[in-house]
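Q: What would this chain look like folded?
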Amino acid sequence: MWPFTSSNIPIIEAKRAERARALESAGVDAAAADHAQYHGATATQIVARIQAGEWTASRVLEAYIARAVFAHSKTNCLTEVFFDRARKQAKELDAEFASTGKLKGPLHGVPISIKDQFEIEGIDNTIGFTQWANKPATKNADLISTLLSAGAILYLKTNVPQTMLAFECSNPLWGRTLNPYNPSLYTSGGSSGGEGALLALDGSALGIGSDIGGSLRIPAAYCGVYSLKPGHGRISYIGARGPVPGYDGVKTVAGPMGRNVEDVRMLTEVLLGRQGTQYDVAPVGLREVEVPSKLKFGYYTSDGFIKAAPACQRAVLETVDALRKQGHECVEISLPDTSISTNLFVGLSSADAYKTLLSHLGPDKKEGALFLVTLGPKLPGFVRRFAAWTLETILGDKIFASALRAARTKTLTEYWALAAQRDAFTREWYTQVWDKYALDGIIAPVQAVPQLPHGGCDNYSALATGTFLYNILDMPAGTLSPKRWETEGGHGSKVMEKGIFYGPQKLYDPELSKGMPVNIQVVGRKWEDEKVLGMMKVVDEALQDIQGEQRMFGPGAWDRWQKSLEEK
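A: My prediction, written as C-alpha cells:
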C-alpha cells in the first residue's frame, strides 16, 4: 500500500469546500412554487413539453438544480458539481430550439446525473481516492459524448464506495451517502449509490451507473428506483475509470437508472450500439421486439446461498400473483448450485490478492465495507484452510467455507481454470434453466434483504451473491419495486443467516424498515436486453393494476411518501 508520506486531510477539505461553494452558488430556492411540475415529470414528458414550446431547457434545469441541492442535503449523494457549465449548455439548447424549432436529439433538455467514474472533460473522476483528486479528465467517456450529442444536460456527478467493490456507498474523500427513505439507519447501496439516492429524491431525471456485481441493481433496490444491467457489449464502457484496469474475469457494464420503465428504455435506446473510440460495442441499436401477450416466467424466492427475508420473498410472490392475474404463466424453478457463481466471482476478483484494487488507497484509510471482501487473501494459507475446515466441519456451513477457500492468490493457470468454469456454469444454466423450463424471463429477489444498515457490508458483503450471479452469467437484468415493506423458507449459509436474521445486531428488522422499498430482478437471456425492458413494462403495469396509488413509485414518489407519513 502507498506509504503514509503526507496527510490526505488538505485534499479532502479542499474538494469538499469546492463542492460546497458550487452548491451554495446555485442561487436557487428548493421550494420554488413551480419546480414540482418539472422534477415530478418523467424524462419523456420533459422532452415532449420542451418540443411543444411549453418548457425551456433552462427552466427545467433550474428545478433539477434546486432539487439536487435538496437531495444532497438529505443524503450526501454528490461529488463533482458544475451547475454553471450546465446552465451555459441549457441556454445554447434553448437558443438552438428557438432558432430552428427542432430538438437537438432525443434527450434534449433532460438533466442527467453521472456516476463519478465516467470521464467528463475538465472534471475530476476520483471515485473517492484522494490521490486521484485534482487530475481532471482530458476527454469525455464514449457514453458522455453520446449523451451530449443527444441533447442531455450534464450538471453533476454522484458518489460511490471506496474502490467500487462494495455496496455501501462511503469513501474518505466524499463521505457516506445515506438512504433517502431512512438516512439514519440504511445505506443507499452501491456502487452506484449516489445515483440511487439522487434519483429517489427527484434530483435527476435520469442517471448513468455501472455494474460488475450488482452496482446498478442494488442501489436501485435500496432506493426504490429502476435500472437495467445490460449484457456486455451493448453499451460502450470506454472512459469509465476503475481501480483494476484490464480486469475481464467478470465484465463490467454501464447502464441506465431512472424513475420508471419508460425513461430507462428511453436512455437505453440512446446508448445501445453507439460506437465509440475503440469500437467495443456490437453495432446493433435498440431493436423493436414484440413481447408475447402471454409470457412464461420462472421465479424463485431464494437463491440458495442465503435465505431471502420474508419481505423479499413476498415481493417475488406478489409479482407472480399480479402476472398470473394478467394471464401470464409463472412456474417456480430450481437453480443450479449458486454457490458456484459466488466462488467464481470471489476467485476471479481475488486473483492478485486485491493488490491492484487497494494500491490506489494511498493515505486513505480502508473502509470497513472492504473488510470481508479483502480478508481471504490476507490470511496465511494454513489459517484460511483451518478457518474453512472449522466453518464446514464444526459449524456445518459448507457454503461459506467454499467461498473462503476461493479467496486467495491464483496462478495464471488457476485463473484460466476459473474462467473455463465460469463458461461451463453459464452453459449449464442455459440447459438447466432456460431450456428446461422454456422461459421468457426470470423473476428473482435482488438480495436476501431489502436494504442494508450502515456498516452492514463490513461482514455481510456476501449478500451480493443474488446480483453477481447474473454478472457471472452475463445476462441482462432489470430492477423495479413491486411494493414497500409491510414464511420462512429453506436455509443457506448458517453463519451469514445468523447475523442477518437473528440476534441484537440483526440486519433484517421489519419494524424499523416499514415503508422502505423492496425490489425484484427481471432477467433475460444474453442479447435479449430489449425483451427485458419489455418484460419490465409488463411486470410494472401488472403491479400497478393491482396496487394503484398505494404502490407509490416513480417521479414524485418521495414527496408522496413523505406526505403519507405526515397524514398518519
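The two ends are 53 Å apart (CA to CA).
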